[in-house]
């Protein structure tokens, strides 16, 4: 059960669009999420800070909860 509780407090983020042509601040936000290449996936702690970064670059990433 501890595994399910830990999984509910995380969010998976996948980079689905390239960074070419995007704003510099948005590129920095993607880097802050730990995403470097196309189709990179990171499992991050679900927090307001992470959600804010995801909302800023919503057109570049996909959330897989």
Automatic annotation (TrEMBL):
One Pfam family per UniProt: Ribosomal_L30
Large ribosomal subunit protein uL30-like ferredoxin-like fold domain ranges (all copies): 11-61
GO cellular component, one term: cytosolic large ribosomal subunit
Domain of life: Bacteria
InterPro entries in the record: Ribo_uL30_ferredoxin-like_sf, Ribosomal_uL30_bac-type, Ribosomal_uL30_ferredoxin-like
Keyword Transcription among record annotations: no
Gene Ontology MF terms in the entry: structural constituent of ribosome
Keyword Ribosomal protein: yes
Record key words, sorted: Ribonucleoprotein, Ribosomal protein
Xref: SUPFAM superfamilies: Ribosomal protein L30p/L7e
GO biological process: translation
Record CDD domains: Ribosomal_L30_like (cd00355)
Quaternary structure and partners: Part of the 50S ribosomal subunit.
Family: Belongs to the universal ribosomal protein uL30 family.
Protein name: Large ribosomal subunit protein uL30
